[in-house]
Amino acid sequence: MFINATTAGKHDEQRAKSTAAGNLLGDGDHFRFGPTIFSNYAVLPKIGSGDLSKRSSSSAFSILPLGIFGGLDESSLSAYMLAPINSDRYICLDAGTIRYGLKAVLQNDESRRLFPGVQPGDEDQVLQQNIKAYLISHGHLDHTAGMIHNSPNDLRANGSNPSKSIYGIKETIDVIRDHLFNGKAWPNMGNAAPESNPETFQIKTYKYEVLKPNTFPQLIDQTNMKVTVYKLRHVFPVLSSAFLVEQSESSSTAPAILYLGDTGSDEYEYEDKDKTQKSTYMKTLWKQIAEKMMSKAIDLRAVFIEVSYMNSQPTNLLFGHLTPKLLAVELDILRTKLGGGNERLLDNVIIIPTHQKPDKNLITIREEIQKELSLKKYKFYFPQQGAVFYV
Ligand SMILES: [Zn+2]
Ligand SMILES: [Zn+2]
Predict the structure, then answer these.
(1) Of the ligands numbered here, which is closest to the C-alpha atom of 78?
(2) In the CATH scheme, what architecture does the domain 2-169+211-390 have?
(3) Which ligand lies nearest to the CA atom of residue 238 in the structure?
(4) Biological process GO terms, please (predicted)?
(5) Where do the domains of the chain lie?
(6) Which residues fall within 8 angstroms of residue 77, CB to CB, at 6 or more apart?
């Protein structure tokens, strides 16, 4: 099942049909190439006719994609603003592209409505006032470059405000501190000394918050959300991570989204360079998510998961990424962990494939996702830069 990323202001008729989270598909699982052009070279398929661009009474989060690709196009690299519905206190999940994404947000009527009084050109205002913290999955540039480039303007509203937090596992924070904000590649905007340059002046626009994997959810500074982090194996020795973000003010089952940074599958990733020990991070992740779903600790609304390559990518050249077939394997593992009739808990979870490259393979990857038999039971949504959607 496929849900369309539509431009605000269109498809009102379809919206009228889409009144609840469980009824998002409009006229069915239709796949066609359409006029959704969001860059000079990429004509993306319009898929299905459901519409998440209109909030419904069951919407729990607003999501603003600032960048959606996994490389090549520096104007649209992984970055997603997320806030509980009715809140203007967002986190940014990865930060590959910030400014170009904010421009797209402020040129989109539906998205701009989230920021009353803000006009196109006021990107700095949203950057400074509405992005309250960054959650970075790993240190690769396609997940960090937007934050780095915009850091000089990511000023606190006034000098007495606290630094903004950058959350990540230790390995991610180490890369940002030692290799990005290290006073050499870029000024030290953080609050810690890089290993190679201990005397560098700390500008402290940001403060580093190391998250311990698999522990209790931690409140996210200046927001109404909390986060649990899980390790992922990108490609040895690079560790990546997944964030489970929950609303922190729910009295019972907390609406939540799961965001995976770059990851390979346990089948093809290893924990040592000699490839003797296979990774187990994905199995661990799905087990823990399934347990939280079954115990009603969370009401999972969406899973952001990377699908970087086509199925034809040789398995020795995956570089710690997934294909449509491997996505199907992963979702089946989650389904199996749920088991015993609990599979229905996945019925309304929106699967958001991320991190494709905007090249000739883009449409093929999306077609392959659509054709994969065991994926037909899921609802997919392909985000569009700048276009708000609700889950
Ligand atoms: Zn990446
Ligand atoms: Zn990466």
Answers:
(1) 1
(2) 4-Layer Sandwich (3.60)
(3) 2
(4) cAMP catabolic process; negative regulation of glucose mediated signaling pathway
(5) 2-169+211-390
(6) 67, 69, 70, 71, 96, 97, 142, 143, 145, 146
